Amino acid sequence: MSSAAFIALVSAAIIGLLLWRALVVIARERNDDPRGSEPGDGYHTINAEYSSGLSGHSTSYKVPRDPQEYARRFVPKQPKD
After folding, report:
1. Which has the closest alpha carbon to 41: 67, 59, 16?
2. Which of 32, 55, 61, 80 has a CA-to-CA distance to 49 between 20 and 30 Å?
3. Half-sphere exposure (CA, 13 Å, Cβ side) for 6?
4. Which whole-number Å values give the CA distances from 7 to 4, 13, 19, in the listed order?
């Protein structure tokens, strides 16, 4: 077997493996539960932690479950001049 044929065979095997893996990932994601949460009353609590190895930071955020209330947080209260 020439070196060109060997390279082509190995390249085809790698491409085949990558395509197979992509199909597996797509199939798995299709079967997962949908992302997000149902709208409603109250708040979600999100805990965010950061660590750089030497120090870190931890905080929590309250996010409203109501989509309209969530959107109002991004609208400024006064128009900019």
Report:
1. 67
2. 32
3. 3
4. 5, 10, 18
Q: What is the mean pLDDT of residues 39-61?
A: 88
Mean pLDDT of 58-77: 87
What six digits make up the tokens of 33?
């539960």
The three-state (H, E, C) secondary structure of 9-75, written as one string: HHHHHHHHHHHHHHHHHHHHHHHCCCCCCCCCCCEEEEEEEEECCCCEEEEEEEEECCHHHHHHCCC
> pTM of this prediction?
0.44
The tokens for 11 are: 């390249």
For residue 51 the two structure tokens come to 């660590």
Reported for 33-40, long-range contacts at CB under 8 A and 24+ positions apart, including other chains, are 37/65, 38/65, 39/65, 39/66, 39/67, 40/65, 40/66
* Interior angle at CA 3, CA 19 and CA 16, nearest 5: 5
